[in-house]
Design goal:
Layout lengths: L11 H12 L20 H4 L4 E7 L2 H10 L1 H7 L4 H15 L3 H4 L3 H5 L6 E6 L7 E7 L5 H20 L4 H4 L2 E3 L5 E7 L2 E8 L2 E5 L2 H11 L14 H9 L10 E5 L1 H8 L4 H13 L4 E12 L2 E11 L5 H5 L17 E8 L2 H15 L3 H14 L7 H5 L3 E10 L12 E6 L2 H12 L2 H4 L2 E6 L2 E6 L1 H24 L19 E5 L2 E5 L2 H11 L10 H14 L6 E6 H12 L2 H13 L4 H12 L4 H5 L4 E9 L2 E9 L5
Antiparallel strand pairs: 1-2, 1-8, 2-3, 3-7, 4-5, 5-6, 6-7, 8-9, 9-10, 10-20, 11-12, 11-18, 12-13, 13-17, 14-15, 15-16, 16-17, 18-19, 19-20
Helix pairs in contact: 3-4, 5-25, 24-25
Amino acid sequence: MQNYISFPAISKALAVSGVLSFLLISSPTPAFAQSQELPDKPDTQELLPETTVGLLKLRNFSEFAEKYNASSFGQMMQSDSVGPLVNSLYDNAAKQYENVSEDVGLSLEEIRSLPSGEITFAIIAPRRKDLQYVLMMETDEDNEAVDKAFERYREAMESSLESAGEDAESELKTEENDFGVSIETMMAAGNRVYTCKHQGLVIACTSEDELNDMFIRWSGAEVDKVRSLSENRKFVTIANRCAVSDDALPDARFFFDPISLFKAASRGNVGANFAVAMLPTLGLDGVLAVGGNMYIDHDEYESISHGHLMLASPREGVLNALAMKPDSYTPEPWVPVDIANYMTTSWDVPQMLASIKEISDKIVDGQYDEYFENLQNEIEKRDSDVNLQDDLIANLTGRFSVVRPILSGDQLNGIGNAASFGISDPEKVEESLSEIFGSEDLSRWWAEREHGSVRYWTKSEESVKYREDQVKARRDRRRKRAEDRGEEIAPFGPRPEVRKGFPTFGIIGDQVVFSDSEEFFQYAVDTFNGDKPALGDDEDFLKDMDTMTKLLKSDLPAAVFYADSRREIGFYLKALSNDNMMKVLDHSAEKDESGFFSDMKASIEEHGFPEVEDIQQYLSTSGGFITTDDSGYHFLLFQEKPNQE
């Protein structure tokens, strides 16, 4: 079975771009005799400066790939039901790469062998200087493919400079630093990149000074006035907050200081500097940093991810407006089991609106009040006595949920969307909506209907016809313009079927529910009435909530997440294998000169799509939550290992 995570070769373009992006930041430099003066490489956070504002790190590529292959998903990719088709598709993609392998200079297997250990990408914001970038990648020192890749890039770079009439020797030069490491100056996208290879670690940096400082830290010495990233308070706080234990190293890590990053990136840009000046007004200068750790195959979890958004205290502006409230969350009784995702939280509505008004008035005094006055005037124009503030806004409880339901069709976008807002007086809100949308002008576009004793509003027949006429008119105008130019419009071949959204809303229980599907709204009503199974009673959901309670300990969540990849993958398998999609594939294969789609069609015809049950046994539900404290928001996402029979 192939290791698919190392190089997901899907097409010729991806193959070329993937290799070139590596080559553009790498350099063929041998290790020198003096290199043993440096000790073994310290951790990345000891090499990088405290002015690092962005970090993406994969701790060990080879180990990550092994964990992936040993995971339930990896086992599924190697199973008798799924493996033959996946292997065949991979072989077809590899065959496409052969068309460009000579230009790249490396075979697919050689490319797959390039990374072996850590891969790190970092963004540095030196004080009063432009942003700088660093890429580090551990490779096997005796891997000939590494030197081969370096040499191929040098040849391409020299050829490019010579064709541009520039002196390649003066641009592509090599010098030793104070530690006997050969630093080679290269060019990438018109910018100088300083690269080296030492102890199997390839480093590429856009700043010679930053690269030199990294080697000073490597030697164990300190850089004047700039500490290492390991002494950055924001980084350390987030790293500690996101650790599952003292002895478990994360498989992947990320860290960003968005405000510092934005300020450094906008240096010298007048428009961007104005945006920077607006940050305190919006309260966004209180976003200190965000980061997290990801662990694969940890204890009973397939994966577990911790993240932390570090905020200043007290929170101001937008951050104060979007303050989530800790609570005990259970799914609303209208949420069915047949969903892909579910998320719920709640906000302090009076605090949110007061903060929005404060921000708005700082920008344009009185604009907030004027906006709501205009809305109230629009309501009154319809001879309505509804008061926007007293009858609608004052009834919002702050509970907010988002659901992605799986609908009955097999279109690619057949997973719907729904959102709900909690209300304190359903009868009063329903009367207000009925009065507004029952007005003469709105009733033309919105039809009032009823299902399961629940009243709701959806697009009227006149609205649907109006939309169809608009689409037809645009199509006719394009055809007419083409005819005037003497062009012949070629007929379209088969196209993927797309579900048309059908906006629908109404009150179910104590929630105002909005959906882009009337079918789902009716299904939600049936669930609320007890005719369909509800998510809150589902064994898998309850099991995930038990796990969440264990992870939360004594805390209450400020938001809850749930996802069912088994149902979602089942839907997409149905959508991809329907007759219409097969016709689209047939048409693509007929028009494809490269043979990519023809090979894909042949693979599917030979092996067929796997049965849904064969895939679902390797998948499991996943959950998560957000908590809040004085330091900010902490989120945790987890997926337990499936119970395979």
